Amino acid sequence: MPDQLCLSLWLREFDEQTMLERFGELLRLFPFSALRPGITALRIYAIEFTEPGVLEQMFAGDVDVETVIELAEEFPEPDCAYLVEGWWDLWRLDAEGNWKLSSSPVTLTCFGPEFENDVGEHVRLELGAEERFMPMPGVPQSGRKAHSNLQSIVRLSREIEEKAPLERQSLWSESGEDFAERLMELADEAE
Question: Which of 85, 87, 99, 96 is nearest to 31 (CA)?
Fold first, then answer.
């Protein structure tokens, strides 16, 4: 399975009383897919992810953020994690070798202050396989499409900076490698 590209967020005034309000604000900012229903599921875990979930709600049609947050508010515990699964639109290469703007899976997770979390962020956005954001050597237009996908992250990041009480953010890959450094290496190889 390819490594995920993640955006971690640390927010000001984030505690047990404000965590779901802050998460709702971020969900409203996120550019969910226009091509298919954006939010598909809400999962809530207590203490750690190895424990059975306390709630799993799937959504068949388009659901609004308010409905998702209302469900999450039934479990307002500091040791819970709230996962919202959905879709956002990215450029992808289809089976015929054509580039198409298509729905790609995304997971947005809000970590309660007492939930076991290896990175320690308040909110994590798993934005998709990192290969969707990097040029593919020898594939026509891959540099432009990867750049467009990266621009989606940049726009989202800037909007979060402008509208959310952000302390800091970090874009990283599950591989643990410096994502920006890997992009620079690929750009050098392409020249």
Answer: 87
What is the pLDDT, as a whole number, of residue 1? 66
pLDDT (tens digit per residue) in 16-72: 999 999 999 999 999 999 888 889 999 999 988 888 889 999 998 778 999 999 999
* pLDDT, mean of residues 112-118: 91
CA dist list (Å): 20 to 55, 66, 90, 150: 15, 11, 27, 28
pLDDT for the residue numbered 191: 44
Select from 17, 150, 143 the least CA-distant residue to 76.
17
Helix, strand, or coil (residue 163):
helix
- CB 40 within 8 Å of CB 86: yes
Dihedral sign, Cα of residue 136, residue 141, residue 145, residue 146? positive
Q: 168 has which bridge partners?
A: 10
